[in-house]
């Protein structure tokens, strides 16, 4: 039987590229996202190669998530790799100008959604045992503060610490946990963050060389297929043309 990967946020960006990467190597894939038509499209693309199951779900809906995981068909039940990728940033403006609803959406998706899926799948992953992996998509924003990062960066700091704490509890089960923390990558992320402002999104990536979704998918696949005795705790990945900057100082 094929190995099975469950990927959240598979309708775009990192998640879609990761689905393709695993399918290219013969893994069965379970694809989660809210946009049914995107899931259907990806299923049509991949199903000649491998078994594909799509689940049109919102990761914030804990009941729907746990029901879907409990009802997985036999051929997709023994998940080996969970890629917790679904997530988003909103409200690029300063904290004092941000809408509370946008803060809630980021927390509900990046934190609550991620723990919903993890909680539902933990028994399966423990049952799979040695070689199983939870790969959580964090961000450099979880470590390095920047203006407008407010709640988004804080949700990604949660992802890092949750990943490390999970490792402590899963010690002895064989289940590995990794926090992958990418820097600037060209996906629909900025389009979502700017609420559909294509010009702002294009401008961010123009004249530089951001990471591409396939770059991150390759790292996810690498981490997931290392020998079972190796756990990458964290992988921080930036484009060569991105680095940190100096501290800001308020002056008279
Ligand atoms: N691009 C970047 O620069 C970076 C991105 N990241 C992180 O990478 C992850 C993937 O983002 P990226 O590929 O860039 O962005 P995209 O916007 O291209 O993809 C985001 C994916 O998340 C899914 N998603 C969002 N909300 C939900 C939800 N409530 N339930 C289910 N699925 C959801 C979307 O699917 P749908 O809308 O169909 O539900 C989509 O498939 C995110 O966690 C992001 O924070 C981290 C570092 C850098
Ligand atoms: O997580 C996304 C990368 S950044 O926009 O926060 O640098």
TrEMBL record:
Q: What is this protein called?
A: sulfoacetaldehyde reductase (NADPH)
SMART domains assigned: PKS_KR (SM00822)
UniProt GO MF annotations: oxidoreductase activity, acting on the CH-OH group of donors, NAD or NADP as acceptor
This protein's assembly is summarised as: Homodimer and heterotetramer.
Q: Name the pathway.
A: Organosulfur degradation
Please list the reactions this protein catalyses. Answer: 2-hydroxyethane-1-sulfonate + NADP(+) = sulfoacetaldehyde + NADPH + H(+)
In its UniProt entry, the species of origin is given as: Aidingimonas halophila
Identify the SUPFAM superfamilies for this entry. NAD(P)-binding Rossmann-fold domains
